[in-house]
Every structure is written in structure tokens, then in C-alpha cells.
């Protein structure tokens, strides 16, 4: 009896494995060396090659990659629960670019929109899908980044997003948290707001202070690491009156841009401990960014109606680095904000104090 039962179980397991293998059978992509679990994903390999060659300079984590990630946020967050959840990750910032790129919060996005438009025109892909796909590919070019999920099938947008839905760096913490809470049917809780700002580890600003274009938000803008969460916690102040520098705070590192919103969120009791928790925690940095970017990419859409084509996104280069205090600085330069947990112990980078180089234009 026991032998018969075991045989039956083994047969059932084998049948299940065969069934699963059949369900995941790959298809050959036409005129390509690639295969995919879903034939609908096959055209994305051509889009990937086009993006890497003609937008990201052969697969670099440079200005266009940073701006493509920024465009994901500016397109996706433009949805309001209070206004009926119309919009979101639909590509309206490209289709209605003459309207949306002129919104104050979106100034500067016109350049990346104009670079992406010709690529979209060469392929059978909607603007909403392209923005999300290009953003995920952009992140994959940055060493240390996670491989972001990508879902295909967003319809074309029917109208421009309303103005006033994209948070700005001079907004108060209350205003920023309220705006995120209103984005989509479920909204974003304060810790998820922090997760979304992981994007600033590979980012720079051109128009917050036009006198210093390409100013990075941390000292390693081409590496997806936790250095951003160290450097925003270093002592710094808002510019007096903030009249000449709206949205900008003072960083102790020459050449580095600190946004007023980052300065305040890193020190607010609702977000400070989550902010600090990323210091030297690369695994958490990657996992939480995957979570928040997937949620962002699905704003305005039902995931069950989309096709999972995540396998087309390249696997990023891994890194093995430890966060440090910048040269010449130490724990005495930290402005502690998390009452529950002391700031992590870090080494100081060797060498003389240097300024942070701007991200060069393409």
C-alpha cells in the first residue's frame, strides 16, 4: 500500500512538472536569435536594441538614462484618486507634450520626450509602454540596480493629464505626502514615498538651479547605491528665504545638488527612519525600488490585462561596495533624524576633500 501510494505521488509530481514545462514553453522570435515566453514580447528586443544604441549611447547610465527614469515618474504620478483616477502611466506626456512639458513641474522633460519620439515612431509600441520600457532599460544600465519588471499592453492616452499633479522640490512634506496618497486607488503611504526617491541615487538636476546644470544628487550618479541616503543626512540647510534658490537646499559637498524636498523628507518623523534604513542596505534598496516602480508603472491600469515581458529587460551589473562618509567628513557631520535607531557606523572615504563632478551632457 505504501509503495503504491508513493508511486502515485511521484506520478502526480511528474505530470505536474510536464504540465508546467508546457505552460512555460518558449517561442522563437521571428528574424531574431531571441526566444520569449510570450510571442507578444518578441518585438521588444528590437526596441531594446534601438534604445541602447540610439538613446543610451551603447548602454550607459548617463544623462538620457537619468531623464528617461525621471519621465517614468512624471508621466505615472499624474493621476488623482479624487479626480476619478484618469491618467497615470499612459504616455500622455509624450502624446500631449506641448501641453504637459510646459507644466512647471515638468520643465526640462521636453528634451527627453523629443529624443524618445522618433524611436517610438520606428516601432509598434504605445507611448505609455515605451516610457515604462525605456525607464526599466535605463535603470538596467546602472551598476547595482535591480532588474525592474515590465508589463506590455497600455492603450494610447486620450487626454493630457491635469496640471498640478507632479510634486515639486519646494513643496512641503505635508503636500508631497498628500499628493502621493491621492495617486491611484490605493495611493502611496509615506514609506513608499521614500522608496520612490531611491531614483535619486542615479539622478541630476538641470533647472532647479540653471547656473549649475547637471548637478548630481549624490557623489555616485552613475551607480545605483545607497550613497544618496548617506549624503542627504549630512548637515545642510535650506537657503535663507529660499527666494533665489527655490527647491534647493545646501549640501556640504561642492557640486552636489540637494533638493529641499529631500532635505525635509530625510528629517521628517514620518519618513526619517525609513530614509536612514537604506544606508548600506543594498538588498533593501533594490527590493523596495522594484516594489514601488511596479506600482508606479501600473497606475491607471489593471495588471491582469497586461503581458509580463520582464524577461526582455537586461540584467544589471552587480556591485560590491560599502557606503562611506565623503572624504573629510564623519559621523559628526550627520544630522540625526531617526529617533528609534542610531545612524549606521561607516568608514570615511580616503583622500582629500573634492567636489562632485556634474553629469556631462550627451
UniProtKB/TrEMBL annotation:
Residues the record annotates as the site (Transition state stabilizer) are: 70
Source organism per entry reads: Cristinia sonorae
A GO BP annotation: cellular response to oxidative stress
Give the binding site residues for heme b. Answer: 200
Q: What is its EC number?
A: 1.11.1.-
An example Gene Ontology molecular-function term: peroxidase activity
InterPro entries in the record: Ccp1-like, Haem_peroxidase, Haem_peroxidase_sf, Ligninase, Ligninase_C, Peroxidases_AS
Q: Sorted alphabetically, which keywords does the UniProt record give?
A: Calcium, Disulfide bond, Glycoprotein, Heme, Hydrogen peroxide, Iron, Metal-binding, Oxidoreductase, Peroxidase, Secreted, Signal
Matching entries from Pfam families are given as: peroxidase, Peroxidase_ext
| Entries under PANTHER family matching the protein | CATALASE-PEROXIDASE, THYLAKOID LUMENAL 29 KDA PROTEIN, CHLOROPLASTIC-RELATED
The Plant heme peroxidase family profile domain is annotated at 69-313
Write down what this protein is called.
Peroxidase
Amino acid at each position: 500500500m505504501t509503495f503504491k501510494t508513493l508511486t502515485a505521488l511521484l506520478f502526480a509530481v511528474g505530470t505536474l512538472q510536464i504540465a508546467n514545462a508546457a505552460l512555460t514553453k518558449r517561442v522563437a522570435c521571428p528574424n531574431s536569435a531571441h526566444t520569449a515566453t510570450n510571442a507578444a514580447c518578441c518585438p521588444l528586443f528590437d526596441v531594446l536594441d534601438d534604445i541602447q544604441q540610439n538613446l543610451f549611447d551603447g548602454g550607459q547610465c548617463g544623462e538620457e538614462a537619468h531623464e528617461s527614469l525621471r519621465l517614468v515618474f512624471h508621466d505615472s504620478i499624474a493621476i488623482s484618486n479624487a479626480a476619478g483616477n484618469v491618467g497615470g502611466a499612459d504616455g500622455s506626456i509624450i502624446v500631449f507634450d506641448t501641453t504637459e512639458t510646459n507644466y512647471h513641474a515638468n520643465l526640462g522633460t521636453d528634451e527627453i520626450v523629443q529624443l524618445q519620439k522618433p524611436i517610438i515612431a520606428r516601432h509598434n509600441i504605445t507611448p505609455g509602454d515605451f516610457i515604462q520600457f525605456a525607464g526599466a532599460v535605463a535603470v538596467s544600465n546602472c551598476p547595482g540596480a535591480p532588474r525592474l519588471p515590465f508589463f506590455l499592453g497600455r492603450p494610447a492616452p486620450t487626454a493630457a493629464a491635469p496640471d498640478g499633479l507632479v510634486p515639486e522640490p519646494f513643496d512641503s512634506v505635508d503636500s508631497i505626502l498628500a499628493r502621493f496618497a491621492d495617486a491611484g486607488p490605493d495611493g502611496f503611504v509615506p514609506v513608499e514615498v521614500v522608496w520612490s526617491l531611491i531614483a535619486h541615487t542615479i539622478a541630476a538636476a538641470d533647472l532647479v538651479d540653471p547656473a549649475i546644470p547637471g548637478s548630481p544628487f549624490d557623489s555616485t550618479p552613475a551607480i545605483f547605491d545607497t550613497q544618496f541616503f548617506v549624503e542627504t543626512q549630512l548637515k545642510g540647510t535650506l537657503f535663507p528665504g529660499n527666494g533665489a534658490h527655490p527647491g534647493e537646499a545646501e549640501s556640504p559637498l561642492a557640486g552636489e545638488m540637494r533638493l529641499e524636498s529631500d532635505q525635509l523628507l530625510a528629517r521628517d518623523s514620518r519618513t526619517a527612519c525609513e530614509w536612514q534604513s537604506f544606508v548600506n542596505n543594498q538588498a533593501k534598496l533594490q527590493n523596495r525600488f522594484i516594489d514601488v516602480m511596479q506600482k508606479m508603472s501600473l497606475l491607471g491600469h489593471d495588471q491582469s490585462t497586461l503581458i509580463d515581458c520582464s524577461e526582455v529587460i537586461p540584467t544589471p551589473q552587480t556591485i560590491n561596495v560599502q557606503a562611506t562618509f565623503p572624504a573629510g567628513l564623519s559621523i559628526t557631520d550627520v544630522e540625526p533624524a531617526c529617533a528609534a535607531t542610531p545612524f549606521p557606523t561607516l568608514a570615511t572615504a580616503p583622500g582629500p576633500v573634492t567636489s562632485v563632478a556634474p553629469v556631462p551632457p550627451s
